Known about the structure:
By secondary structure, the chain is of the alpha+beta class. The chain has 2 domains: 2-42 and 266-400, no CATH class; 73-255, no CATH class. The chain is built from 13 helices and 14 strands. The chain has helices at residues 2-6, 8-44, 77-86, 126-129, 142-146, 157-161, 205-211, 231-246, 261-304, 306-314, 319-356, 364-390, 394-400; strands spanning 50-54, 92-104, 106-108, 111-112, 117-122, 134-137, 151-154, 172-175, 178-186, 191-192, 195-196, 200-204, 220-225, 257-260. Strands 1, 2, 3, 4, 5, 6, 7, 8, 9, 12, 13 and 14 form a 12-stranded mixed sheet that branches. It has a two-stranded antiparallel sheet with strand order 10-11. Strand 10 (191-192) and strand 11 (195-196) form a beta hairpin. The radius of gyration is 31 Å and the shape is elongated.
Amino acid sequence: xxxxxxxxxxxILTVFIIGMGILALVGSLTLxxxxxGVISNDFESMGANTFTLxxxxxxxxxxxxxxxxxxxxxxxxxxxRGFIDAYEYPFSQTSVSFTGTRAAEVKFESEKTDPDVxxxxxxxxxxxxxxxxxxxxxxxTVFDIANNSKVCVIGSDFKRSLFKNDDPLxxxxxxxxxxxxxxxIMESKGSTFxxxxxxxxxxxxxxxxxxxxxxxxxxxxxxxxxxxxxxxGAQEAAILTFRNIRKLSPLExxxxxxxxxxxxxxxxxxxxxxxxxxASIISIITILGSSIALMNILLVSVSQRTREIGVRKALxxxxxxxxxxxxxxxxxxxxxxxxxxILLGLLVGLAMANGFDIPFxxxxxxxxxxxxxxxxxxxxxxxxxxxxxxxxxxIESLRYE
Length: 401
């Protein structure tokens, strides 16, 4: 420590160089964990016993220029009605939904929101099938949907923005001139890549169809089964039912897609593995540069401390003593760099989490890896300078001085 203090400027420079390498490791792995965590949570909230019928498969193939290999027809309302009437798999429930608009303006008395509110038309099973909890109030009932009641469930952001933290329950809002009574407030889900999940309004599906009459509405069918053991049977029955609705012959391929929630989670995990490997490679390259810089600084330190080395060896210090001294200095400097890099990495991760409005997760794995990597880098980078210092001839060292 006394030797390190005697070279304070070089030590600070070396610590900073190592810290930048560790920052690249911790920061990149933290970002991967944050992004994959929030995406996985969004999909896992659907539950492993849920699957969705939609226009395309999740992995729809595309030709050059971005065009899909096959253009599937949209899932229209006739398809939806036919499926609900024909699909009667035991212990299952089907939710229907569509996006009315992503640019609605919601009014309450003299207040109004920006035109960036999402409005969805849903049935009574939508909230449960998508894993959405109602924090205050209640969810839709079958009577609300069957009677086309002018009621709605809103996201948690409205409580702060439109109602100034007042209780929105039983208040009346207006969308496109249609008045809705608020019966429930969904729990906060945050924002995913700029898409605010807490700034949306759910209304009964028939009411929404009366408000949004564009001809190309694409509906989504989400089926949830009570027991995962019957998932495969439920999926086969759903495919057969929808093929019959579309009047497909046995030789024709499906002109619709099925997305399983657990398949999406597995896909996200695969992407996470790829991103982790890519981030690790980039970090290793950065750390390699840091180790070379550390080695060069230590070699310069050896050449500048020949007097100290010569005196110590003349007084009886062994080669191993000199080598261990320089090696320990390298390790200590490496650990200081590790601490700096970890702190900077945590700050960067926290800033990214706040920027994306997603929860921050402490990257314990990345921190442990950074500590181990910095130790190995310090040993490797300090080994050659330590051996060089140990081999100095004390007579030549003192003569040089």
